[in-house]
Write a structure and sequence with these properties.
Length: 491
């Protein structure tokens, strides 16, 4: 056995199949021939130790041989314990490992080390029933659903992931959504079939929230896209044997989908899904791990996130809005434009209107008509502190405001009472901007005194400088992390 054990040590993830397969097959052959033999416990743990390698041999003969040998050993070793009227152990170490499980490959590392002399093992570690539990666990990691009798033990960390994702995806986060989604952005290094499925199912559940604009850090979306693209080579593009309705239904809510994806990533969680299927609801593990099903989810999630990156962080085309916000004679349609700057409306239309106004201000240049440039500058200030802007649009408006700050004249003014009444609402400010550009369109309730509540103070150079400074500060504060990260990338 010592010579065989030495060979096992060389069978690791990524080993050359022409060298590793014969070693694995020899171990599986010996175990299958005598699943209850004198060396069965050690042979079983030998296959468990080589399971990370076997994960990379999907569909090869060695995979099926190992799963069959482990299954036979699990039944035989359990039977040995029953014949001996129990083993005397209150519990076995493999169940502790199920409670502490992180990823499938990491979880397998909790098994006893076969390089340690067998007579030095703890009694519970060397117990045939512990070996049976590990044999079932390893078989399930290699081929999900291939072993019965795995306890429905969901790791505490996985339960926490389910709770945190549930709160985020229901839009009532208990913590920081970015952190809760970042944990699942990229797949673990070595993927079992079920871990791959779990990663894709969770990423698909998370992509809709990640792309909604609630999270402003582009790095999360980029990581998710990169992670999804990295697993596509593992999911061949082709048809499968499943008929209509045989793939898992994902209509129970994103939070439930995320929970199912988390369950796929541990043996105990998979046991929960198997029980649900046995009880008449939920799909079998074989359907959850179907490459065709998973590829469709991965592509949809990736494409949605790509679109979100363009929408939230990229540039927008606004030339088509000329016909919306300019009259036939080329003059500004201030009523339509200001209406789009009111908060709590269609966010996409509002931020695109704000970007159009900023670009027109820039395009008119310092020599452009002062009245129009003034109202466009005022609208930029309103957008900066009243609208929910995506980062890409806010960044462009910030650049235009910074340029404007260098060109505005300085000096003092005579508006001792200020330029606006205290606590002025955005809608009242917009009404004053409309009156400034088109006095007859939105008449004031009373006479325009020129002191705070009227439109004339809006044109004061001091006030315009205040608007620009405030707009710059608002955007810089809202997007501090994104601006810093972009500066670091550029540097």
């Amino acid at each position: 056995m010592n010579e065989l054990i030495e060979k096992w040590d060389g069978v690791t993830a990524g080993a050359a199949p022409e060298e590793a397969d014969p070693v694995v097959l020899e171990c599986a052959r010996l175990l299958a021939a005598e699943p209850d033999g004198e060396q069965a416990v050690l042979l079983a743990f030998g296959l468990v130790s080589m399971a990370p390698y076997i994960l990379g041999r999907r569909g090869a003969a060695v995979e099926r041989a190992v799963v069959d040998a482990l299954g036979a050993a699990a039944d035989a070793l359990d039977e040995r314990g029953l014949r001996a009227d129990g083993c005397g152990h209150a519990d076995h170490p493999y169940t502790d490992s199920l409670e502490e499980w992180d990823t499938d490959v990491d979880g397998l590392s909790y098994a006893p080390d076969v390089e340690v002399p067998f007579d030095e093992w703890d009694g519970a570690d060397s117990c045939p029933r512990n070996a049976a539990g590990w044999a079932r666990t390893a078989a399930d990691v290699i081929l999900p659903g291939s072993a019965d009798g795995i306890p429905q033990i969901v790791p505490e960390d996985h339960q926490r992931y389910i709770r945190s994702l549930g709160s985020v995806l229901n839009d009532y986060p208990n913590g920081e959504p970015l952190w809760d989604l970042e944990i699942h952005a990229v797949p673990p290094g070595d993927l079992s079939r079920a871990s791959l499925a779990g990663y894709v199912v969770v990423a698909h559940a998370n992509c809709w929230y990640a792309g909604s604009g609630r999270i402003r850090q582009r790095s999360l979306l980029d990581d998710m896209i990169e992670g999804l693209e990295s697993v596509l080579p593992l999911l061949p593009d082709g048809a499968c044997a499943h008929g209509d309705g045989e793939h898992p239904a994902l209509g129970s809510g994103r939070d439930q989908q995320a929970a199912e994806g988390i369950h796929l990533q541990s043996p105990g969680g998979r046991a929960v899904l198997r029980q649900e299927h046995a009880d008449g609801y939920g799909a079998p593990l074989e359907a959850w791990t179907c490459p065709t099903f998973l590829r469709a989810l991965a592509v949809e999630a990736r494409d949605h996130l790509r679109e979100a990156v363009d929408r939230l962080f990229g540039t927008r085309e606004t030339a088509h809005l000329d016909r919306v916000y300019l009259r036939p004679d080329g003059r500004l349609d201030i009523e339509s434009l200001s209406a789009r700057h009111a908060p709590f409306q269609d966010e996409t239309a509002s931020e695109e209107a704000a970007l159009w106004a900023a670009r027109r201000y820039e395009r008119l240049g310092p020599d452009g008509p002062a009245p129009e440039r003034t109202v466009l500058l005022l609208l930029m200030g309103t957008a900066a502190d009243s609208l929910e802007l995506s980062y890409g649009i806010a960044r462009e408006i910030l650049g235009i405001l910074r340029t404007a700050a260098t060109t505005l004249p300085g000096g003092g003014c005579d508006h001792a009472d200020g330029h606006a009444p205290g606590g002025e609402r955005a809608s009242d400010r917009l009404a004053r901007i409309v009156r400034l550009h088109a006095p007859g369109m939105c008449p004031a309730a009373g006479a325009d005194s020129g002191q705070g509540s009227g439109s004339e103070p809006l044109t004061c150079p001091v006030h315009l400088a205040e608007v620009v400074r405030k707009g710059i500060a608002e955007i810089e504060e809202q997007f501090e992390d994104e601006l810093e990260a972009e500066e670091q990338r550029a540097g």
